[in-house]
Amino acid sequence: MTHADLNGARFDTAKRLDPRWRIAWEIVNRPQAGRLLAGANLQGANLKQATLQAANLKNADLRSSQLEGANLAGADLAGARLRQASIDDTTQLDVKWRQVWEIVNSVVEGRALNRPISPALTSVKSICGVRN
Predict the structure, then answer these.
(1) C-alpha–C-alpha distance, residues 102 and 127, integer Å
(2) In angstroms, rounded to a whole number, what is the distance separating the alpha carbons of residues 71 and 90?
(3) Mean per-residue pLDDT for 57-63?
(4) Does residue 1 have a pLDDT over 60?
(5) How far apart are CA 18 and CA 8, in angstroms?
(6) Contact 59, 80 (CB under 8 A)
(7) For residue 28, what are the contacts with CB-CB under 8 A and spacing of at least 6?
(8) Predicted TM-score of the model (pTM)
(9) Do 64 and 46 form a contact (C-beta atoms < 8 A)?
């Protein structure tokens, strides 16, 4: 079900749905700010246009997830796995986490990595906490 659009999808309650996809379904079909998703496995989830504002996404696995147009303003992404997650200009994401996403996903020539990128990122460990 990787990248499946679950918005508006209906499931037979008798059928078992993998917890990853059930969480993704909840996110896109029942918008709610401040979700507690620490450690959640959302790898490959289609979360386009999702409301994840102020969500606790500490250590969440967002690898290869689709986050275009999602609202992640105020979300805590410390330790989140962002490799190959797709975002765009419509993704609402705090500056520090957009910078971390850029570092994890692309080569940015001329960027000095020996000093904090923003005041909130005070060590290389906090950047590297965004695991592959």
Answers:
(1) 11
(2) 9
(3) 97
(4) no
(5) 17
(6) yes
(7) 6, 7, 46, 47, 49, 50
(8) 0.75
(9) no
Tell me which residue of 38, 27, 19 sits closest to 67, measured CA to CA.
Answer: 27
What's 130's DSSP letter? Answer: S
Dump pLDDT digits (tens) for 2-47. 665 656 566 655 467 778 888 998 999 999 999 999 999 999 999 9
Place of tokens 């490799």: 83
Q: For every residue of 30-55, which 3-state class applies, written as one string?
A: CCCCCCECCCCECCCCECCCCECCCC
Helix (H, G, I), strand (E, B) or coil at 15: coil
Contact, 66 vs 45, CB < 8 A? Answer: yes
pLDDT of residue 2: 64
| Maximum Cα–Cα distance across the chain | 55
Structure tokens at 91: 């993704």
Work out the burial of residue 129: count CB atoms within 10 Å of its CB; fewer than 13 is exposed, 13-18 middle, 19 or more buried.
middle
pLDDT digits (tens, 9 = 90+) for 69-83: 999 999 999 999 999
